[in-house]
Amino acid sequence: MGKGKKKTSRKGTKAWRKNISNKELDYYIEKVAREERSGGPLDSVPDEDLFFVDKSSDVSLIKKTARCRGKVLKSDAILERQSLVPPLISTKTKSKRGKTPKTKVLAYVGEKVKQGNAQETFDIWADDVHHESDGSKKKLNMKKVRSTECPAAAVEVDIAGCSFNPSFEEHQEALGLAVAQEMQKVYKQQLEPPPIPVMVPGVPVEEEDAFFLDVDDGAEVPGFGEEQDLETSRPVKIKKLTRADLNRKRRRKERMRADEEKVKRVKLNKDILRLPEIAEDLEKEQEEKDKERLRRMIGRKERESKGPPRLGKLRFQPAPLQVLLSDEVSGSLRKLKGCFNLVRDRYINLQRRGLIEPRQPTKKRARKKRIEYEQGSKGNLEREMHYARQEVNGA
């Protein structure tokens, strides 16, 4: 019998599957990427883009012939009339069609190149097929900005009873309206809650009661704080979960998940059976939403008709009704009193139209009382108290 093959150690051997050379694959991937960056494979590029005709040798000949053609004969130059007054240069009219920006052109060219390189792979049986070249883009949901314009008129016309020569009935109606406005302010002020008083009236506390109050405030329950400190200082023991506890917890979670799915399935079956009722409920809900929307729109229009929109911290307060009293009605413009608040009326009118922000006149702040100190008064007071204490001790 011949000798068997000597066994060698396989510790240093390498698996042939792990050490396969992938240089060819890397070269192919790099080549494809380079072709895509350069505009595609060379086989698909036409010859006009790859080659060109060299005509650089004819440049000198063309320049020479052009220079000779541009020369004018001496006789023609003498006979040519040359005016000393320069001709009028017509201004170039600007074209209505604007120039397309360079960025748009570059973006369009880049998009064309991308479309040419990309492979057209789409489902031919699909109903809705959208290509990038169609330019179909999603519309942005832009929120409408509500205009703050007030529908108020530029000039507000007062009622007929505010005239300098009104009839008796119209004048009484205007007076009643002015009185109603003033009484409304009074009633509103009366219905407001009373302000918080600065000083609260109280009963003076006697010395004995004050002593008991101090004792109640500083009293503490004996032993209560010590027990609480012991409870907080006691270490918390964390129980380690075993494999059985973990399995029990996992089974409980699975059981709860199955119960939730069962409840959802039962609810879905019930909803399927009562689809007509759900449709009616949805219709009623939509009707209620429409009514609420209409109600809000009507309320907004009413608020806009009553006054301007709120532009700042304060709301617009309309001016009181300018009506003459019964004694002031004279029936003649000459006997009227002079109007000295024309600028103020214009200012209030601008606020009423919502053009400027309403303002409120600020009150004058009371000046702080000035405290004067006499030099050496503190030392004199201490000196007097020291002498008085010495007299008491000596006595």
UniProtKB/TrEMBL annotation:
Pfam families: Nop53. GO terms for cellular component: nucleolus; nucleoplasm. Residues 358-395 are annotated as: Disordered. Residues 361-370 have a biased composition (Basic residues). The keyword Transcription does not apply. One of its GO terms (molecular function) is 5S rRNA binding. Residues 371-389 have a biased composition (Basic and acidic residues). PANTHER family: GLIOMA SUPPRESSOR CANDIDATE REGION GENE 2 (PTHR14211), RIBOSOME BIOGENESIS PROTEIN NOP53 (PTHR14211:SF7). This is Ribosome biogenesis protein NOP53. InterPro entries: Nop53/GLTSCR2.
